[in-house]
Design a protein that fits this description.
Blueprint: H1 3-19, E1 27-35, E2 46-51, E3 55-61, E4 67-72, E5 78-82, E6 89-92, E7 101-103, E8 113-116, E9 119-122, E10 130-134, H2 135-139, H3 147-150, E11 158-162, E12 172-176, E13 188-191, E14 194-195, E15 206-212, H4 215-218, E16 229-234, E17 240-255, H5 264-277, H6 282-285, H7 291-299, H8 311-315, E18 320-332, E19 336-347, E20 365-380, E21 383-399, H9 403-411, E22 426-429, H10 438-444, E23 447-464, E24 472-490, E25 498-502, E26 505-507, E27 514-516, E28 531-535, E29 545-546, E30 549-566, E31 569-584, E32 590-603, E33 607-618, E34 627-638, E35 652-666, E36 679-682, E37 693-694, E38 700-701, E39 706-709, E40 720-733, E41 738-754, E42 772-791, E43 796-813, E44 835-836, E45 839-842, H11 846-849, E46 866-868, E47 883-884, E48 894-904, E49 907-917, E50 920-922, E51 968-970, E52 973-986, H12 989-993, E53 998-1011, E54 1031-1041
Helix pairs in contact: 5-7, 9-10
Keywords: Cell outer membrane, Membrane, Signal, Transmembrane, Transmembrane beta strand, Transport
InterPro entries: CarboxyPept-like_regulatory, EF_Hand_1_Ca_BS, Plug_dom, Plug_dom_sf, TonB-dep_OMP_SusC/RagA, TonB-dep_OMP_SusC/RagA_CS, TonB-dep_rcpt-like
GO cellular component, one term: cell outer membrane
């Protein structure tokens, strides 16, 4: 094990066993909590134990009679009493055993503040569809290095699809309530209010993540809000003593699941069977392996002549290591608050790479350093200045070899292939053009280094104008981001010492003697039977190329806020102007302008109204579509605050209904200036006649440019428009012991952009069509979120969170060709609908073979193959028989999540399960076809004359017919997403001597187990994707609070 991880493990173990016995003795404190308004007991009051200087730690809630019981460690402990609508009280325990508390009403008390678009809002007054998670939940994600991965399953309506496990990669697709467009369905992501990537943010810097899902929540973002919005809020300083937190962890990661081909004996045996079952040709017999030779592959007496190669053993490590460390400090006074954080991350490589003398190790790795700081200063009693500075530097290294050959080598390379000979030469089988040595590509393909450096700066000045108009505030903000990315490639083509090997068998003419197929060639090695060509070349060092990308973002805004309470009436309003300029390299900046407004009203915390609007500008479109207005409206009714609801409050303490409707837009996936017509220029260069030519028959090129009509423009091109409707119900039972929230949503998206290539032009058009807004979709679904939390004793508590999301889209229109059959249209089906020909049955004999329809994939049929169905009954099987089947393959229609945990004194345990269903995947991993001798476990049960009940057709060699829907399977899965065991130590004399207020040691993991019939753990795309495999993480770490 790595020295650093060993030191951390040793330190954690010593702390755990040395400190456990030093805990102070506890005593029991009892009491009753009542309301100052009616002197009645308050059920569900949060009673939190707070140690001096250590922050909130553990606690309980009052029962139906307002009673509570907690255990106190010492006389200096403080009890904190919190309840919605009441002022928080803190009471020193001292020597008392009975502490009764009377809570006073406080209309300004916030149970929870939710981050919304361009501001914050009390949770009880929120009428939009917003869900949020906290830093504590994110840090339990189990060693993930990407914030997007940490979100998976935590929030209803949010699903993430990971396509690669490569170090430093961020190939993660995020869907909020499914997919409503084919033009970039990803949400708008804002970090501290600015559009920024969240992939390289250290999780320990994050305070909360809010997801805005309906139009009421996203309308303030107008033309960018149709796909939902994710708001990432980072930590800030608070009024407190200086607090120092140090954390670190080591992660052991392994490959989650990849399919493993069988050995060369099984592969060649199945290959022989495939040749025998076809009508053999001379060329196919040359690929046949005689029985006595086949036995030598099985015996492995000569592994270099009869190889049985395990590519995964050559190309993967048993495990790889990640390291992460973070240190942050925070605190402040009423005048100044501060926060600073520094973090380091190293991601190791699961692929087995080595410096074989080429002068470099092409390891896949990622090293990143993060920093973040902010300072909030009261310049005057009414003026506040905030300065934020953040950034990171990341260095990603990887092999520059052909990725298709590298990743396919793990699962799709034949086993009868010598990777390396005893003398150090590398195998290079020239008989197989598609299967060159993957280990050579991995280690000798050169290396690539990407460096990403980003610096983010924000300055915000807030002025309280209450002396002018009570409740009025104004602020201005300026932000400037710089990102520099460089890409260097070294040794970008490898010339490796290798054997070019010609290999094959055949029977000697007129005899049964086996001879080498290439025995007539000069130079054949008579001992090994190979014709080696010694290909010795030298490496090419210092061949570097650079691809530098510089990005700059300037953002500035001015905002005015108004909030007042008049008796039972609460009103607020917000107006904002913002402009953003994005520049890449030295190109002209892309600009976005927005004017935003919001107005809210509630009466007696019972009836709520909210209006949001955004007047957005985008320069992507023509002069008539530069700006548009996107409004939304929302209503809410907190029924639990009505007097008639009082009799049931002991059981159902919270009941609120809300609804919203609004219009938002999206310009994602649409290039600039498509509204302009394009003329193509053609030149005559060096004798070519691409331009104008004159003369007949002796044509002569003209020196003048030839102009031809290119893509025609479309002045009516504009953004997509999404009309969103949402109805939500929030309930709480037994003092929020149980909470159940449900949302039903319906989205109708119109004017979806369709590129010119997808629009069928009529014959009389004379050319291709221009792009147009012709698409239309609908998305329907619902979300359910259930939470349960219970304190059984002062030391024992448990909780459970569960959520379920159903989201189904359907295409209403998408420029389908006229007169196209309904089943061939995209209209009426989901975006990315899987399509295939259909199987009827496996042909069992020669008589059955001639009774079916011939055509595409049927003309070469033999017994043992699938018969294609002539779906449209026209007597021919062709593209008109390809029909919709199953579900899309890039996202699930249904997702569900269950997280549960318990804590006892300082110990805690939690587990999270995440599952999906209604998703279709093609598992047709490459099998052998001619030169590819690859079989897998399921191939052993294919059709044979003696196994006629098989589900799969027999393997083909020269005549490999399509399997239709046989390889399209239900890709449902359940995964053990996270598992954590932790122990927290506090109030320890030993820790006090070290100035440590609390210490936590934990062991957790991510993606630990995968229940599925799929042969590979890959969440998105098809099995032909050439991506780095997904990994399982096993993590050990600590947190120290000073």
């Amino acid at each position: 094990m790595n020295k650093v991880s060993f030191k951390w493990l040793t330190l954690c173990s010593l702390m755990l066993f040395a400190i456990t016995g030093l805990q102070a003795q506890q005593r029991v404190i009892k009491g009753t909590v009542i309301s100052s308004e009616d002197m009645q007991p308050l059920p569900g009051v949060n009673v939190i134990i707070k140690s001096d200087g250590s922050g909130d730690t553990r606690g309980t809630i009052t029962d139906f009679n307002g009673n509570y019981t907690v255990a106190a460690d010492d006389e200096n402990m403080i009890l904190v009493f919190k309840y919605l609508g009441f002022k928080t009280q803190e009471i020193l325990v001292g020597t008392r055993a009975q502490i009764n508390v009377t809570l006073e009403l406080d209309a300004e008390e916030l149970e929870e503040v939710v981050v919304i678009g361009f501001g914050e809002q009390k949770k009880e007054s929120v009428v939009g569809a917003i869900t949020a998670t906290t830093s504590k939940e994110l840090q339990r994600a189990g060693g993930v290095t990407n914030l997007s991965s940490a979100l998976n399953g935590l929030l209803p309506g949010v699903s993430t699809v990971s396509n690669s496990g490569a170090p430093g990669e961020s190939d993660i697709d995020i869907f909020i309530r499914g997919q409503g467009t084919w033009n970039g369905a990803g949400p708008l992501i804002l970090v501290n209010g600015i559009e920024r990537s969240m992939n390289d943010i250290d999780v320990s810097e994050v305070e909360s993540v809010s997801v805005l899902k309906d139009a009421s929540a996203t309308a303030v973002y107008g033309v960018r809000g149709a796909n939902g919005v994710i708001l990432v809020t980072t930590k800030r300083g608070t009024v407190s003593k200086p607090k120092l937190t140090v954390s670190g962890n080591t992660t052991i990661k392994t490959i989650s699941r990849i399919p493993k081909p069988l050995g060369s004996y099984d592969a060649l045996r199945m290959k022989n069977l495939a040749i025998e079952r076809e009508i053999p040709t001379h060329s196919s017999w040359s690929q046949y392996t005689p029985v006595d030779i086949l036995q030598k592959y099985r015996d492995q007496t000569d592994p270099y002549l009869y190889p049985d190669t395990d590519w995964q053993d050559w190309m993967t490590e048993d495990y790889a290591l990640n390291y992460r460390a973070n240190m942050n400090v925070s605190g402040g006074t009423e005048k100044v608050q501060y926060f600073a954080s520094f973090a380091y991350l190293h991601e190791g490589d699961i692929l087995k790479t080595t410096d074989y003398g080429q002068g470099y190790d092409p390891e896949f790795s990622y090293n990143r350093m993060n920093f973040r700081s902010n300072l909030d200063m009261k310049v005057t009693n009414s003026t506040k200045l905030s300065v934020d500075l953040a950034g990171y530097m990341g260095i990603q290294s990887k092999s520059d070899g052909t990725t298709a050959d590298i990743y396919k080598g793990l699962t799709e390379f034949p086993p009868d292939y010598v990777i390396r000979y005893p003398n150090g030469m590398w195998g290079w089988d020239v008989n197989r053009d598609r299967y060159k040595n993957a280990v050579v590509f991995l280690n000798f393909g050169g290396y690539e280094v990407k460096k990403r450096t980003q610096l983010q700066s924000d300055v915000n000045l807030e002025q309280d104008l209450g002396k002018v108009i009570k409740g009025l505030k104004a602020d201005v903000r300026v932000s400037y981001d710089t990102e520099i990315q460089t890409e260097n490639e070294g040794v970008n083509i490898a010339n490796v010492d290798k054997y070019n090997v010609f290999r094959g068998y055949r029977y000697e003419d007129g005899t049964e003697n086996i001879i080498w197929a290439n025995d007539s060639e000069d130079g054949r090695d008579p001992l090994n039977g190979f014709n080696y060509i010694n290909d010795r070349n030298q490496y090419s060092y210092e061949q570097f190329t650079s691809n530098n990308k510089n990005k700059f973002k300037l953002y500035y805004q001015a905002r005015i806020n108004y909030a007042r309470t008049f008796g039972k009436h609460e009103v607020s309003a917000m107006g904002l102007f913002a402009r953003e300029e994005n520049t890449v390299q030295a190109l002209f900046p892309v600009k976005l302008e927005q004017w935003v407004s919001r107005a809210t009203y509630n009466y007696d915390k019972r009836y709520f109204f909210e209006f949001n609007g955004a007047y957005n500008g985008s320069e992507k479109f023509g002069p008539e579509y530069k700006f548009d207005f996107f409004p939304s409206f929302a209503l809410g009714w907190n029924i639990s605050n009505e007097k008639f609801f009082e009799p049931v409050k002991e059981v159902m303490n919270h009941f609120k209904i809300r609804g919203s409707y609004g219009v938002v837009g999206s310009d994602k996936g649409i290039d600039k200036n498509l509204y302009r017509a394009v003329w193509d220029e053609e030149y005559n260069v060096r004798g070519q006649t691409n331009g104008l030519v004159f003369g007949q028959p002796n044509r002569q090129p003209s020196p003048y440019i030839r102009y031809t009509e290119g893509n025609p423009g479309n002045l009516d091109l504009h953004w997509e428009v999404a009309k969103k409707t949402n109805i939500g119900i929030e309930t709480g039972f037994f003092g929020d012991l149980i909470t159940l929230n449900t949302d039903i949503f319906f989205d109708r998206r119109t004017d979806i952009f369709v590129p010119a290539a997808d629009i069928v032009a009529p014959i009389w058009n004379g050319g291709q069509n221009g792009p147009a807004n012709l698409g239309e979709t609908e998305v329907r679904g619902f979300e359910i979120e259930l939470k349960v939390q219970k304190s059984f004793t002062p030391d024992l508590s448990a909780w459970m969170n569960a959520n379920y999301t159903y989201s189904r889209d359907i295409i209403i229109k998408r420029a389908d060709a006229p007169l196209l059959e309904e089943y061939r249209k995209q209209a009426g089906y989901q975006i990315g609908q899987t399509r295939t020909t259909l199987n009827d049955e496996i042909i069992s004999n020669w008589d059955d073979m001639y009774t079916g329809v011939q055509g595409l994939a049927n003309e070469n049929n033999l017994p043992g193959m699938f018969r294609r169905i002539d779906y449209n009954a026209d007597g021919v099987i062709d593209e008109r028989d390809i029909v919709p089947y199953g579900y899309p393959n890039n996202r699930p229609q249904n997702t569900y999540n269950l997280a549960t945990g318990l804590s006892y004194k300082g110990f805690s345990l939690m587990a999270q399960f995440y599952g999906v269903y209604n998703i279709t995947r093609n598992i047709n991993l490459s099998s052998f076809f001619q030169e590819a001798t690859i079989v897998r476990e399921r191939d052993l049960n294919r059709w044979t004359p003696t196994n006629t009940d098989a589900d799969l057709a027999h393997l083909g060699f020269l005549n490999s017919a399509s399997d239709g829907q046989a390889n399209l399977v239900d890709a449902s899965y359940i995964r053990l997403k996270t598992l954590e065991a932790a122990y927290t130590i506090q109030n320890s004399p030993f820790l006090d001597k070290l100035k440590i207020s609390s210490a936590k040691i934990f062991v957790n993991g991510n993606n630990l187990y995968f229940w599925s019939n799929l042969p590979e753990d890959r969440e998105g795309g098809s099995y032909e994707r050439d991506n780095y495999p997904l990994v399982a993480n096993y993590n050990i770490g600590f947190n120290l609070n000073f």
